[in-house]
Amino acid sequence: MKNFLLLLVVILTSLLFSCTSENMESSIGNLVEEKSKNTAKLFQNLSPENPANTYDIAGKIHNDLLDVYLSCNYTFNTIPQISQIVDSISALNNDLLILGTNLPVNFQEIQETVDNPQTKLEQAIANSSMTNAAKICLSNYMASLILWEINEYSVIHQSIISFEASVIANTQFSSEDKRIILTTSSIVRYSTYYAKERKDKDWETSVGNRVGAVQGAVANSSTAVNKSILTGLLIHNL
Hints:
Layout: H1 2-16, H2 28-42, H3 56-71, H4 79-90, H5 107-115, H6 117-126, H7 132-148, H8 153-169, H9 175-197, H10 207-219, H11 221-236
Helix pairs in contact: 2-3, 3-4, 3-9, 3-11, 4-11, 5-6, 5-11, 6-10, 8-9, 9-10, 9-11, 10-11
């Protein structure tokens, strides 16, 4: 009986981390590599990159991880379920380790962000360690995105690049100010590209997705990537 239960647990665990019936034999590790290549192909015509942004890799990793998750066609809709899968995929991305240690998810905070993203955005910025000037800068940037997103991606991209250039050149901002703002901006730039340029429109950016990036960036850039994906997926599944 014990052997049977052990076998059942193994089977259920395997099913939890499998994709659809068509690709159940593919491991998440293989998908991470494959989707990273596919994402790179998308960039050939119009790249979301900005080499001038030191934290540009945060946005690229965001898109790679998101692509893997969406390709698996998961039907999970609870915070613990989605968080577990995102963490599992993230653990296989070596580049993410460069950005810092991903902090544990506060499920209550995530739910509050999904329910009231604008309020949580204002709180995240106000309670951050940034200087007042940087807080105002990031708040204005997040507000501007709502106006920019109606344009083609090429226009949005140029607006974001110009914004990032001004942040990089600002001598009043501390290194921490710049890390938080540029990490957030990188994720916004890449996630907007993902939504605008994918042929299959199965992902849309949202205020919640961006708020997750800000909340995570206050801690470190790795947490920004995961919280942005998690919050975005939860809103996407509503």
